[in-house]
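User: For documentation purposes, I need each entry recorded in a consistent format: the amino acid sequence on its own, followed directly by the corresponding structure tokens. There are two entries in this batch. Please keep commentary to a minimum and don't merge the entries.

Assistant: Recorded as requested. Entry 1:
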Amino acid sequence: MHTAVKGFASLYPYRVFQASSPHYANPLGEHPARNEELQKWAEASYSEAADPAEFLSLIDSSRWRAPDVFIFRDATSEDVPEGNTAPGDRDEPAAGVNPDDPNAGDVDAGFGTRDELADHDDQPIVPSEQDADYGYRTEINVNDYPSVLNVRTHELLFNPAAFDDEALWHRAEIGPFVVLTRA
């Protein structure tokens, strides 16, 4: 299963494609390489793998077992809020940081303030020609140590057309989520 919604994996011991945090990921799980794989799949879903059969072939060619289930947030609906949909990512101060301190988050190495660091990843990672408000949204987390906010969340968009074949994928809408299961 691939999902960026941590709660799903905590309800039942599903085998997830990617650990939710790079800090707690087993090094043998190759967290950075799996992030690159997810990004490759997302980008290809808007180009050479936009066809569902080609997309399935692409994910099956991965060196890791491909997910049988994807749980996305649906950005094709007008009900989805704009921007990062993960709760609390940027509105809460980092642990131990006084939010009233104008220098909160400053790092001697020149990494910038907490607010400057939080601003760099507001847009989903999608091919430049693709509309950033259309697609199935998921997230990847990147280790950004030694920054004050040492885990960065980047959104990925997947093309819904890459899953639009009932012979290959079963689709269910549950609240703000789209659950895609291999047929």
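Entry 2:
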Amino acid sequence: MQNFDDVKIEKIIGSGGDFIVEVDGEIVFSKNGLIGTDRVRLPNGGEITRLIREKLA
């Protein structure tokens, strides 16, 4: 991956319309996890990179 060395990326295609990003088995972003809030959305540009960096720090 361009922003991180030595990473494993896995794409799992399913149903339900969710978009989930995990770092070391912990969810750092979930579109469906935002349902019921005023923030149901896909991540903004650079947001996933920032969340991963914060988790790894």
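Summary note for entry 2:
Residues 1 and 25 are 18 Å apart (CA to CA).
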